[in-house]
Design brief:
This protein is α+β, with helices and mostly antiparallel strands. It has helices at about 15-30, 40-50, 55-65, 95-100, 120-125, 170-180, 195-200; strands at about 70, 75-80, 105-115, 130-140, 145-155, 185-195, 210-220, 220-230. It is about 25% helix and about 30% strand. The strands form 2 sheets. Strands 3-4-5-8-7-6 form a 6-stranded antiparallel beta sheet. Strands 1-2 form a two-stranded antiparallel ribbon. β7 (about 210-220) and β8 (about 220-230) form a beta hairpin.
């Protein structure tokens, strides 16, 4: 759940489309479904879960959008091969990035705790409500100036001890890389206006634009982390290179 966004109540029943997604993701995480394996068709899912075609289609569509499955008209849906990429975006550790510019990195931990997933955090991690997760909010500074607000949800089973890590001495990126080696990543970048909490933490003015990077990372065929990385538009820019396979 992002800062400033609406909170949902705990204990709400799991939507049927989410149950289908979790069923498929569970099969992948347990190794019952491997890259290239065919998964149940819409018709089979409708019969198995007793849902409408619209519900089954939504589940498969969202898994396709997340890069978990590949849908081939006339053939069916298959588990995606995470190694098949047209390009790779480098996962940068903010501390290393700052040090490479000759500046000192520091971090202020606003929150880092274990909790049960509510509807919204469960949705972004693709798990059921009540699943053990970690939730952290950290402000990263370059030479004492805030340049990144990191809010992250982490699957509890993938990173035991995350809530005990000292993120003033290491970063969530470094910690997760050590305990859940990266398998694939999805990025979304967009411009946003800073809300009141973001203004306070990043020291930006009302109405100042920010750059938001949403990063989802997978390890061992499961989504393990969802992060919202917000940067002041006037103090930060993204640059990257692409390798075309």
């Amino acid at each position: 759940m992002a800062l400033g966004e609406e909170r949902f109540g705990h204990g709400a029943p799991e939507p049927r489309y989410a149950a289908i997604k979790n069923y498929i993701l569970g099969g992948i995480s347990r190794g019952e479904l491997r890259p290239g394996d065919r998964i149940k068709s819409e018709a089979e899912l409708i019969k198995h879960f007793g849902v409408s075609r619209m519900t089954a289609n939504r589940a498969l569509r969202e898994l396709q959008d997340a890069g978990v499955v590949v849908r081939m008209p006339g053939l069916g849906s298959f588990v995606a091969d995470s190694s098949s990429k047209g390009h790779i975006i480098e996962i940068r550790n903010i501390a290393d990035e700052i040090r490479s510019r000759g500046h000192e990195h520091s971090a202020r931990v606003i929150m880092n705790k274990a909790q049960k997933a509510d509807r919204k955090s469960a949705a972004v991690l693709g798990v059921g409500p009540g699943t053990p997760i970690f939730h952290s909010v950290i402000v990263h500074c370059e030479a004492g100036v805030p340049i990144q607000l990191e809010e992250r949800f982490v699957l509890g089973a993938a990173a035991p001890g995350y809530d005990k890590a000292d993120f003033t001495r290491t970063t969530p990126n470094e910690y997760l890389t050590s305990v859940a080696p990266l398998e694939r990543v999805d990025h979304t970048v967009r411009a946003i206006l800073a809300d009141a909490k973001t203004q306070e933490l990043l020291h930006v003015k009302s109405g100042e634009p920010c750059l938001l990077l949403i990063r989802q990372t997978w390890s061992k065929s499961r989504l393990v982390s969802y992060a919202r990385l917000t940067h002041p538009g006037g103090r930060f820019e993204f640059d990257d290179s692409f390798t075309v396979g």
